Amino acid sequence: MQPNMTWDVKEFTRAAEVTVDELAAYVDQSQRGTAPVLRRRPPRELADELELARWISEGGMTPDDFRRFLGVYLREGTRLHHSAYLGHQSAVPDFPAALADFVHGATNNPMAIYEMGASAATVEFEVVRWMLAKVGFGAGGGGVLTHGGSLANLTAMLAARAAAAPDAWTEGVPRDLVLLAAPSAHYSITRAAAILGLGERAVVPLEVDGLGRIDAARLPAVLDGVRRSGRRPMALVAGACATGTGLYDDLRAIGEFCAVNDVWYHVDGAHGASALLSDAHRHLLDGIELADSVIWDAHKMLRTSSLAAAVLVRREPDLDAAFQQQASYLFYGDQGFDLAGRAVECTKAELGLKIFLNLAWRGERGMGEYVARQYETAHRFWELARNRPGFEFPYEPESNIVCFRYGTADQAAIRERLMDDGTFHLTSAEIGGVRHLRVTVMAPATDDRTLDSLLHHVTTLPSA
């Protein structure tokens, strides 16, 4: 007799109830700060406690087994909802996005091909249309959601390559193409240049100020040098905001320069484009509408679980030109609303549903209030600490990211000591070759009490 491979719906329901119960307790503990913000035991030790080898080999997990497993699993890791989570630029997911992940986990509609997920694709169309309007691209723009900002930047660079060298898809990349970017640009820009066949050496560093922002006044000299050497700029990349510092480039000045000089203008708005939703902060993105392409990660400041990033172009045909696929089992006749022709991925999760449900629950205004609140909390940290003895801040924060130093000790060592006992989760970054501590305010639970506690802990660490 063949085993029954269909779902046992009753067992699924029981397991789903376990999942909701355990996750609700996890988020509640995290938001109240009753557990460490992170644990990072060695993999072998954790694998043994989770009994991973046994479960992989034998199977047979029941809902009760799953409850015990999930309890251990959730206890070990990083609690993004915790007020002391001030680390990486990962969204603290809102529960509507979590519901979307649950729906996708059950339905699994890979909607890059419309017939495989009409509802999911339609939701993505509307979410992208909303994002295009926010950026200011209007009715002629186009876009697609991808699994992360690195893929989004790669896709935008493919569109730029197609505009600069239309035959590159079939004939290869011309050796005279270069990419203009600041040293502070996200590493995925250099990675994209290498993947596209330009090579890392084709990335020409732009002149910047002491904080890594593009110096728009010095762009003519850089472009003149490139063209006199017989090379062509494929694109110029600006940051909104820089990953390390959270500072914005002067998007309008750079955009006007690119327009006059016929250079593809790309804005990496992975983290900072969400400030478009905040009345108090959208001025930081003045000029973004001049871009030829923009990326915008929902899994950073739109409270959407990983991954969901948008590639947006001012002229829709530019995105369609990025790829020139042939696959007889997919591309034949008029397929109408397929997205596979404008994305790296063929199988694509129901990414738009996560963004849509967050918007449907919180509204555009609610999302903007979240962004504003996180930006203002980072600014509050700067206000609380800038005049305290031993603290140095290289700039006044513009976003929810702020870098600082305390004393003369090894700043990376200070970070490690804060993380060793799970008290705080910080990151670090270099500015002008000098290592700084880095706070990124992501959790809604982070408040003045958290910030004061962090400052106190930093000053009381041994050798800090």
Automatic annotation (TrEMBL):
One of its GO terms (molecular function) is transaminase activity. One of its GO terms (cellular component) is cytoplasm. Its cofactor is pyridoxal 5'-phosphate. SUPFAM superfamilies: PLP-dependent transferases. It holds the Pfam family Pyridoxal_deC. The keyword Zinc does not apply. Keywords: Aminotransferase, Decarboxylase, Lyase, Pyridoxal phosphate, Transferase. GO terms for biological process: amino acid metabolic process; carboxylic acid metabolic process. Gene3D superfamilies: 3.90.1150.170, Type I PLP-dependent aspartate aminotransferase-like (Major domain) (3.40.640.10). The modification N6-(pyridoxal phosphate)lysine is found at K300. PANTHER family: CYSTEINE SULFINIC ACID DECARBOXYLASE (PTHR45677:SF8), GLUTAMATE DECARBOXYLASE-RELATED (PTHR45677). Belongs to the group II decarboxylase family. This is Aspartate aminotransferase family protein. It comes from Planotetraspora kaengkrachanensis. The lineage of its organism: Bacteria, Bacillati, Actinomycetota, Actinomycetes, Streptosporangiales.
